[in-house]
Specification:
Keywords: Membrane, Transmembrane, Transmembrane helix
Distance between the termini: 27 Å
Largest sheet: 4 strands, mixed
Shape: elongated
Low-confidence stretches: 272-299, 405-413, 478-485
Mean pLDDT: 79
Radius of gyration: 27 Å
Structural class: alpha+beta
Number of helices: 16
Number of strands: 13
Length: about 525
């Protein structure tokens, strides 16, 4: 096979135009497809540009990470819209009239951190769960679509130009295959990113672009809810441990009879839909407490605990002035006593607890009418005849784009993580498989061919393993096990795997460029019509 290390332009497409067109397509697709969340307060323009540059790098080397991010936000927005619609249906059945049904754009605005509220503790972002809570209690704020569009910087012309460039790239590759002409590894790599960019466009179609300033809500309809929302959220938790200060305070509804707590057994049974945004899903043992045995199925958690052990910092809750409140410390269960909670937290005053109770009462009244939602907003323990305030992040500092590799909820809503990880695994399989299809192309050396095959197989295999692992876990157990201290060996194995996956991704991108130093001459022969298709490069 005749090869060349550099092809000039006059006789067809040249090496420079090939590289330039692929880079333009790659950067345009990734940059324009990114719809990042509202930045934290006081974020400089330089910091925002740097953040977007980071995401462009993620999009080039790990596009499935960006697709998983977009998928999580889409699912969260769709979840919020569905919940609001269910609330509206309930209102129409009971009151004869419903409220405003939010569009996907309005729901995306809430998911991306576009709504803020002022509290005595400062300004916080209303999370998707916070928005859902307000809808549940008939206090959904009025947010006009025009207000969102005015702040969004969506550019239809720019998207059209990118789509045309991407279409030209895809059409040229298809035409080359039909005519039996070779396709470069760089074009294969670019094709993968074009497909991912199209997926991002579809998932983020209704998401506002480059929203810089969130809307500050008028809280007149839900002002009494703010203490409850703050106390339930991690922003109101202990700064060292992240454990809520209301963790061990029993709640008695306004129409309920307070029953004394009795523990005639060594274990306590707790029911909680903590899959909705709770910090418990990040570490179950931190949420529930020290355990000697644990079982979890269908949101029922049974754990062993010593009775009568009350943290010294919680003893003040047993003072006379606290006993008349309907939010008081339990006689049996004290989360503050258990590791890793430190004896350093401050207790709530009776005045602030009274404010929290007002919000809890408003939610409780709604759950009495709609019992299926009881476990979403409260934690129930029939063993000790108690209810506790659920710990959901109704208020957050800002909406992160991608908080961690472990917490694939990518926000505060836990929207079936296994389903989301399926998206991550499938995208990795598709991305790796596309590169694997180039195994029989011309390579400058045999070693580079083998490294290409190994790298593509590693990415494809990682996606398949993720898919299989989470599918099996979903079949065998409906809830994740308690996370204790990680095994140091497994921890280093995990880091080693991540490091290897980073290396193979970097290799694929670098090899796509350096392979052009010894490319088939037919690579620079172009179908005649492609030169007349509008494009860059």
């Amino acid at each position: 096979m005749e090869t060349t290390n550099w092809q000039s332009e006059p006789d067809g497409r040249g090496t420079f135009s090939l590289i330039f067109s692929c880079i333009i397509t790659l950067v345009f697709c990734v940059w324009s497809a990114l719809h990042l969340n509202v930045p934290p307060p006081n974020t400089s323009s330089k910091r925002q540009a740097l953040e977007k540059t980071y995401w462009v790098i993620y999009g080039i080397f790990a596009p499935e990470l960006v697709v998983a991010t977009a998928a999580s936000q889409y699912i969260a927005a769709r979840w919020l819209k569905r919940e609001i619609e269910m609330d509206n249906d309930y209102k129409e059945k009971t009151a004869g009239s419903g409220a405003e049904i939010w569009t996907m754009t309005q729901c995306f605005n809430a998911v991306m951190g576009g709504l803020t509220v002022n509290t005595p503790q400062g300004r916080f972002t209303l999370s998707a769960e916070g928005t859902r809570l307000l809808s549940f209690i008939d206090a959904l704020p009025t947010v006009a679509a025009s207000q969102i569009h005015d702040k969004s910087k969506a550019d239809g012309l720019a998207k059209s130009v990118v789509c045309i460039q991407a279409a030209w790239m895809m059409a040229q590759i298809i035409a080359r295959l039909i005519n039996g002409l070779p396709v470069s590894l760089l074009e294969i790599n670019t094709c993968g990113h074009v497909i991912c960019a199209l997926a991002l466009y579809l998932l983020w179609w209704n998401k506002p672009l480059d929203l810089q300033d969130p809307l500050i809500l008028d809280d007149s309809a839900f002002e009494e809810m703010l203490p409850f929302m703050f106390a339930s959220s991690q922003v109101g938790a202990d700064s060292k441990t992240g454990i809520s200060k209301v963790r061990c305070l029993r709640y008695v509804g306004p129409a309920e009879v307070d029953q004394p707590q009795e523990l005639n057994q060594d274990s306590i049974l707790i029911f909680s839909e903590i899959s909705i945004g709770s910090t418990g899903m990040r570490n179950m043992s931190d949420f529930i407490g020290r355990k000697t045995s644990f079982s979890g199925k269908d949101h029922a958690y049974l754990f062993q605990v010593g009775a009568g052990e009350i943290s010294s910092q919680c003893l003040s809750y047993f003072a006379k002035e606290y006993q008349s409140l309907r939010l008081r410390h339990g006689e049996v269960y004290c989360r503050q006593f258990m590791a890793p909670q430190q004896e350093s937290g401050e207790t709530f005053s009776t005045e602030y607890l009274s404010l929290i109770i007002k919000g809890a009462d408003r939610v409780w009244t709604k759950t009495v009418a709609r019992p299926s939602y009881e476990r979403y907003f409260f934690t129930a323990s029939p063993t000790i005849k108690s209810y506790y305030i659920g710990e959901t992040d109704y208020l957050i500092k800002s909406a992160p784009n991608f908080p961690s590799l472990v917490n694939l909820s990518l926000g505060q809503v836990n929207i079936n993580r296994d389903t989301l990880r399926y998206v991550f695994g499938f995208t990795a399989m598709a991305y790796g498989g596309l590169h694997l299809s180039g195994w029989n192309h011309h390579f400058p050396s045999r070693a580079e061919r083998m490294l290409w095959i190994v790298s593509s197989t590693a990415i494809t295999g990682s996606g398949m393993l993720l898919w299989a692992f989470f599918a099996m876990r979903k079949l065998l157990r409906k809830t994740p096990p308690v996370q204790g201290e990680p095994d140091p060996v497994l921890k280093w194995v995990y880091y080693g795997i991540i490091f290897m996956l980073v290396l193979v991704r970097v290799f694929l991108v670098v090899e796509a460029f350096v392979s052009l130093r010894d490319a088939p001459t037919l690579l620079y022969t172009t179908p005649e019509w492609s030169d007349f298709f509008p494009h860059f490069g």
